[in-house]
């Protein structure tokens, strides 16, 4: 069954248009979103205060428009949200560029020092649920379908607490149906073995620095299998996950080897990244980061990996990886060779030198100008509050967009992306999605100590597009893991897959967006559902949000 | 030990000259020679020295200039000539200063330290004496004090490129590329023959994002890279790495081929050429180069063991030699990544 949703109004374009330009405008001030990411800065700068900031875009009330959820900090060292300044917040999209804070009604203010968020419908009831990670508390919130959520963490059994009773510090989480049983499972990474009691203090008085992750031990990640009855089973050991100690920051999922099973990439901070290759059939995972050449950067070194996205950025049918890191390290761009191996293409693709001076967190591979080739976005800031204007390590940095040049290379086009992309701030998480359903991918970026940036994509091109909203029947209802291939009328072929995971500690629009360039019709859309079903549509008109139900 | 040096300094500085010094009337030419030497113009300096030798054969200062010329040309006789001069003119702070500078370049640190002490004791306001003392303070870990002295020395003698080079080096080592660029740019403006300075300039332009300028600096440095005190054996290696990042693979190959000939005992050059060969898909050559890199110790840690293992794993994996690939994958897993500074994230 295919349902075509109505076209929406295009946002009026600005003058002096360059058809190839990518542009953003920050509309936070007029949005009604008054959230401030409060990390509770203290004199001794504990390591937790620089790595928070997850954002989710989700349609929690199924009105067809993306709403926004922000995670927030807490007091240190008590790690309690002792007042509204620390509440996590849910904002309802009013469809007119404004949002309303519905946190209290929804019951989502949260507890503890929150970090990240992952949104998906884990119980297939048609309503998007939320998993919120944190230093000392994780929460699974069930969407009740009436604008409220219920904390079902204990019942579900997903607290990110080890068998020995230790709560591990979680940053990112990802919903993934790893065994294709039609139910979304949950992967939660862990960062450092930090407590207020073992906190290290780094840097001289008055110039405290965020301590190097090498000063703390790493932790294992969790994989929870969805039992289909509202509960989960911790299968971390059985599935070969918890044996691998990491310092996990970002997570992204994709079927990188085309075997029909979703794989999981974990960006680790200053140690080898993990690529968990799914053996399929619920038989577990093999960690193959080394063997696939994605563990380290081009110099064979572990770098400060933060955010990640895992999509096909060169239209060869193979999802590749874009990872953010600190300045001096470059942002690795791993090209999938199709033989189980990746090559590190940051310099070859032209972003090596360009990213050398950047420190990035949120990361996205999306087609911002709808030309049929996915671009790159990074939400930038250093980890340390450096006040020396002469230092080349700048705390406040501007976000960056790299335009895909269609030849395997990218060009930093940020300086032409509008004044709001020149703003230097301590950016962190970034969630990607079409907030106003105009066919252009927008970005919501969290900012430590300030309001978020709600960056509407105002790129002037009139290129065509399509967004695909999958509804699983035998597959999980969100269709997460569905691999989609489209062929435009010009023959341009593109690939993507359904996921909300990726970026840094954030969760993005589950609808799969494709820019189509000049193609106003799509010759073919092929969906490979996690259930194994293959569904094909022909001669589909562009410029719409297309809901496709599995059949 | 310090007391002995001070005693010697006081004694030395009080000595009378052994030979009569008849430099009178040659002051302008001597200043001109000194300037030419500071600017690295060894050809011009040699020509002028020959003329001065003919007109003022008994002028002791010519010996100092000859020592400086020999040092600039990489002639080992410079040591003896410097010593000869300081014996003749033991009160000349500049003589001790240039000797100290030469000894520092030769890594004869103890002798350099002694000479530098004599220089500052004979002439605390002398620019060269101040500069070498600043250099030594930095070596001893007192970088801020060293920088202050070097900056003062520049104010006293704006034509001294070497002092600027030392300042640039301090900023380079402490990862302050903006300041490093400032000083290395000044060096090459005074002394365009200093290939080392062009190399460092390029290296520090890279992290500032000035890629085209970096390439120009490398290319210029290469054209000036002749045997002598300004010769930079690592320039082809640095340039080769840079060209690989710029995707100019043939040009990179040319430089890295030169690098392995120039510095065959250095792990980094073989490692880098191995990486290039992987990119060029010359896997057998990559294997040879990577194994060669693995066989060389790297006490300074420029290329860590982990990097070698990661590269070897990639090479063997691509060659289909699974057992060896597995071996290096496991080694990579258990080898910790090198850390420059455990305490902070500013690198």
Describe the structure.
The complex is a heterodimer of chains A (551) and B (347). By secondary structure, chain A is mostly beta strands. Chain A has four helices and 38 strands. Helix content of chain A is 3%, strand content 34%. In chain A, the strands form ten sheets. Chain A has a four-stranded mixed beta sheet, with no helix packed on it. A four-stranded antiparallel beta sheet of chain A has the order 2-31-30-29, with no helix packed on it. Chain B starts with a helix and ends in a 13-residue tail after the last helix. The A-B interface holds A 202-203, 209-212, 214-215, 270-272, 290-291, 293, 295-296, 299-302, 304, 326-328, 341, 347-348, 352-354, 356-357, 382-384, 386, 390-393 and B 176-179, 206-209, 211, 244-247, 304, 306-311, 313-314, 317-318, 325, 329, 332-333, 337-339, 341-347.
Offer a concise description of the structure.
The complex is a heterodimer of chains A (551) and B (347). By secondary structure, chain A is mainly beta. Chain A is 3% helix and 34% strand.
Structural descriptors:
heterodimer, A: 551 residues, mainly beta, four-stranded mixed sheet, four-stranded antiparallel sheet, 3% helix, B: 347 residues, mainly alpha, 19 helices
Give a topology summary:
The complex is a heterodimer of chains A (551) and B (347).
Chain A (H helix, E strand, L loop, with lengths): L1 E3 L19 E3 L28 E4 L8 E4 L18 E5 L5 E3 L1 H4 L7 E7 L8 E6 L4 E5 L5 E3 L1 H4 L13 E7 L8 E6 L28 E2 L1 E5 L5 E3 L10 E2 L1 E7 L8 E6 L5 E5 L6 E3 L1 H4 L15 E4 L8 E4 L9 E4 L5 E3 L7 H4 L4 E7 L8 E6 L19 E5 L5 E3 L14 E7 L8 E6 L5 E5 L6 E8 L11 E6 L4 E5 L14 E6 L3 E8 L5 E8 L2 E6 L2
Parallel strand pairs in A: 32-38
Antiparallel strand pairs in A: 1-38, 2-31, 3-4, 4-5, 5-6, 7-8, 8-9, 9-10, 11-12, 12-14, 13-16, 14-15, 17-18, 18-19, 19-20, 21-22, 22-23, 23-24, 25-26, 26-27, 27-28, 29-30, 30-31, 32-35, 33-34, 33-36, 36-37
Chain B lengths: L1 H13 L12 H12 L3 H14 L5 H12 L5 H11 L4 H13 L3 H14 L4 H13 L3 H14 L4 H13 L3 H14 L4 H11 L5 H14 L10 H11 L3 H14 L4 H13 L3 H13 L9 H15 L2 H13 L13
């Amino acid at each position: 069954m295919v349902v075509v949703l109505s076209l929406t109004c295009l946002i009026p374009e600005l003058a002096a248009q360059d058809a190839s330009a990518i542009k953003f405008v920050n509309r936070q001030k007029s949005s009604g979103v008054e959230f401030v990411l409060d990390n509770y800065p203290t004199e001794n700068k504990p390591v937790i205060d620089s790595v928070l900031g997850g954002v989710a875009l989700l349609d929690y009330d199924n009105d067809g428009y993306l709403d926004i959820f922000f995670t927030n900090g807490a007091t240190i060292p008590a790690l309690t949200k002792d007042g509204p300044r620390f509440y996590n917040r849910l904002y309802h999209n009013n469809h007119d560029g404004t949002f309303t804070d519905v946190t209290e009604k929804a019951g989502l203010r949260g507890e503890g020092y929150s970090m990240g968020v992952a949104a998906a419908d884990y119980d297939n009831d048609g309503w998007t649920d939320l998993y919120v990670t944190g230093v000392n508390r994780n929460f699974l919130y069930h969407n009740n379908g009436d604008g409220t959520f219920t904390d079902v963490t204990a019942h579900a059994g997903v607290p990110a607490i080890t068998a020995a009773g230790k709560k591990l510090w979680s940053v990112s989480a990802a919903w993934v149906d790893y065994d294709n049983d039609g139910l979304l499972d949950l992967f939660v990474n862990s960062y450092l073995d930090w407590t207020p009691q073992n906190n290290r203090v780094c840097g001289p008085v008055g110039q405290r620095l965020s301590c190097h992750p090498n000063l703390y031990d790493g932790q294992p990640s969790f994989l929870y299998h969805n039992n289909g009855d509202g509960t989960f089973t911790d299968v971390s050991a059985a599935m070969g996950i918890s044996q691998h100690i990491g310092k996990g920051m970002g997570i992204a999922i994709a079927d990188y080897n085309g075997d029909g099973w979703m794989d999981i990439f974990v960006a680790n901070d200053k140690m080898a990244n993990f690529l968990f290759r799914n053996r399929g059939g619920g038989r577990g995972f093999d960690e193959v980061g080394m063997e696939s050449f994605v563990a380290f950067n081009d110099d064979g070194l572990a770098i400060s990996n933060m955010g990640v996205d895992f999509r096909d950025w060169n239209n060869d049918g193979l999802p590749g990886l874009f990872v953010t890191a600190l300045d001096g390290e470059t942002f690795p761009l791993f090209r999938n060779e199709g033989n189980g191996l990746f090559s590190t293409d940051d310099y070859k693709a032209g972003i090596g030198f360009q990213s050398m001076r950047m420190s990035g967190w949120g990361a996205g591979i999306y087609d911002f100008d709808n030309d049929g080739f996915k671009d790159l976005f990074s939400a930038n800031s250093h980890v340390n509050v450096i006040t020396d204007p002469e230092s080349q390590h700048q705390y406040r940095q501007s976000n960056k967009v790299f335009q895909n040049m269609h030849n395997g290379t990218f060009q930093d086009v940020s300086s032409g992306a509008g004044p709001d992309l020149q703003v230097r701030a301590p950016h962190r998480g970034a969630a990607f999605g079409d907030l106003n359903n105009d066919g252009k991918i927008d970005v919501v970026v969290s900012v430590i100590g300030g309001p978020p940036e709600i960056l509407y994509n105002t790129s002037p091109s009139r290129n065509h597009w399509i967004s695909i909203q999958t509804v699983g029947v035998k597959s999980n209802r969100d269709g997460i893991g569905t691999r989609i291939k489209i062929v435009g009328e010009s023959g341009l072929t593109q690939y993507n897959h359904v996921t909300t995971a990726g970026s840094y500690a954030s969760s993005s629009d589950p609808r799969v967006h494709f820019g189509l360039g000049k193609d106003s019709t799509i010759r073919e859309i092929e969906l490979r559902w996690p259930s194994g079903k293959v569904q094909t549509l022909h001669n589909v008109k562009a410029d719409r949000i297309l809901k496709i139900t599995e059949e | 030990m310090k007391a002995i040096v001070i005693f010697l300094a006081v004694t030395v500085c009080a000595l009378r000259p052994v030979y009569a010094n008849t430099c009178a009337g040659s002051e302008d030419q001597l200043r001109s020679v000194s300037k030419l030497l500071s600017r690295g113009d060894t050809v011009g300096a040699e020509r002028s020295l020959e003329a001065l030798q003919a007109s003022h054969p008994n002028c002791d200062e010519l010996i100092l200039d000859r020592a400086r010329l020999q040092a600039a040309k990489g002639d080992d006789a410079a040591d003896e000539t410097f010593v000869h001069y300081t014996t003749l003119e033991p009160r000349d702070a500049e003589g001790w200063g240039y000797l100290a500078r030469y000894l520092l370049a030769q890594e004869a640190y103890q002798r350099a330290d002694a000479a530098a002490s004599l220089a500052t004791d004979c002439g605390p306001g002398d620019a060269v004496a101040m500069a070498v003392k600043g250099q030594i303070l930095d070596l001893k870990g007192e970088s801020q004090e060293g920088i202050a002295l070097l900056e003062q020395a520049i104010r006293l003698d704006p034509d001294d490129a070497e002092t600027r080079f030392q300042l640039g080096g301090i900023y380079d080592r402490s990862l302050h590329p903006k300041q490093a660029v400032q000083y290395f740019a000044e060096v090459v403006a005074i002394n365009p023959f200093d290939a080392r300075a062009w190399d460092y300039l390029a290296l520090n332009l890279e992290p500032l994002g000035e890629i085209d300028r970096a390439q120009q600096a490398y290319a210029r440095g290469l054209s000036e890279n002749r045997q002598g005190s300004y010769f930079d054996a690592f320039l082809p290696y640095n340039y080769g790495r840079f060209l690989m990042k710029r995707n100019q693979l043939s040009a990179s190959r040319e430089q890295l081929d030169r690098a392995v000939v120039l510095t065959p005992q250095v792990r980094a050059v073989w490692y880098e050429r191995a990486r290039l060969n992987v990119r060029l898909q010359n896997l057998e050559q990559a294997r040879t180069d990577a194994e060669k890199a693995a066989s060389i110790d790297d006490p300074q840690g420029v290329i860590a063991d982990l990097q070698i293992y990661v590269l070897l794993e990639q090479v063997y994996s691509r060659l289909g030699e699974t057992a060896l690939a597995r071996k290096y994958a496991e080694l990579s897993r258990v080898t910790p990544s090198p850390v420059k500074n455990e305490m902070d994230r500013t690198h």
